[in-house]
Every structure is written in structure tokens, then in C-alpha cells.
Amino acid sequence: MINLNDFTNVECLFEDDDDRLANYFRIAETVADLIGPHCEVVVHSLKNLETSVAKIVNGHMTGRTIGSPITDLGLKMLRVYQETGNLTPKAYFTHNAEGQLLKSATTIILGASGKPIGLFCLNINLSLPFSEIISTFTPDAAEVAEKTTPERFSTNSTEVILGALEQAIKDVEADPSVTQKASNKAVTKLLLERDIFEFKEATVLVAEKLGITRHAIYKYIRESKTQITSKE
């Protein structure tokens, strides 16, 4: 039998656990936005199992709202955790009240004490037409042109730096207001604005690729910071 006192005793929770749980609220919004309206994301608080739903996005899938209770399957997962210590059970299939097939996944959230304080749950509606589901992952041509954001997926910091440098050079070359003489400074400023110099080896790599000294890079960085500060 699950010991409900292990999960409902507020005194067991550290003061920062509310903030810790609230961090998952933002993750819930992000995941739901990424996957689409056919994905319900729920954050349960174990302070009170009768009103455990502390955050829910796309609750239309199950009809739940903030303040709804934990499910029987949620209780089962807590019991399994007590017995096995497994925080991330395998995904499973279930049905909502309308009989729609859902694929679901749940992970247990631990607090500062190392004890469970909540559950993070995903429910994806598989009963919708496939075209409706996939449409959230396939933007039309206009959206591709207007809303896509370039991002380089690199395996090391050197790739990140060199990729950013390549893009900065292209951006500067496409700007007719930047003269050839001022191009290196303009590239350095763009890299500074894009936080690339947060990488320790960035100064050396950028100087090497631009064919200038590290001292020149430092000078451009100082001048760029002064310009940025004066604008603020």
C-alpha cells in the first residue's frame, strides 16, 4: 500500500520546493507549444492529492483544470517508486473519458529533500486524424520564410564559435553600410552581441580566422561594449 503521508505532509517539503515545482510550469508551456494542441501537459503537486493539478496545458483533452485530483494511475506510479525507486516509468497507453487513445509518459519530480514533490505528465492524443497531428510540425512556406530561426547543433564549442563567426561574416558582408576597413570590428561586435566571447577560446579562434591579433579583438570588444552601453 502507498503511504499517502509520505507525499501529503507539507512539513516534509523544503521552502524552495514550490519554486522548484514552478520551474516545471514553464517547461510544460514549452513542451505543449512544441508538440501542439493534441498534447496535454500536467504538473501535479503532491502537497494535496485531492487537488494535485497545479499546472495544465491543453486540459481540453481530459477535461481537467487546475485543482483536479491525482489519477489512480498516478498513485500507482508513486507506489511503484516507493518499491523500486524508478522515477521515469516507461510510456504507456490509456483512454480519456471520450474513449480517445492517448500515449502517456510520467516522471516523478523530487524536492530538495530527495522526496517526491510532484509529477510531470504528458498525454498525446493518438485518435486525431494523422494529418491534424502532423500539421503542427510542418509549417507552410510563409512560416518557413518568416518564423524559422537558424540554429547550429554542434558537438563542441569550437564548432559553435566557427559557425557563429561564419554567420557574422556573412551578415557583415551583406550590410552595405560596413566598409571593408571596418568589417573586422563589425564582425567582432556581432559576435559580442551574440555572446560568443563567453567561450574561452573564442578570442584566439576569431583572431586567427580574421587574420588579426588578439589585442585587436580585445580593442574591438572594448569599443563595442562602450557603444552598446552608450545606447542603453
UniProtKB/TrEMBL annotation:
Domain of life: Bacteria
Residues of the Transcriptional regulator DauR-like HTH domain: 165-222
Domain YheO-like: from-to ranges: 21-129
InterPro entries the record matches: DauR-like, DauR-like_HTH, YheO
Protein name, entry field: PAS domain-containing protein
Upper classification of the organism: Bacteria, Pseudomonadati, Pseudomonadota, Alphaproteobacteria, Hyphomicrobiales
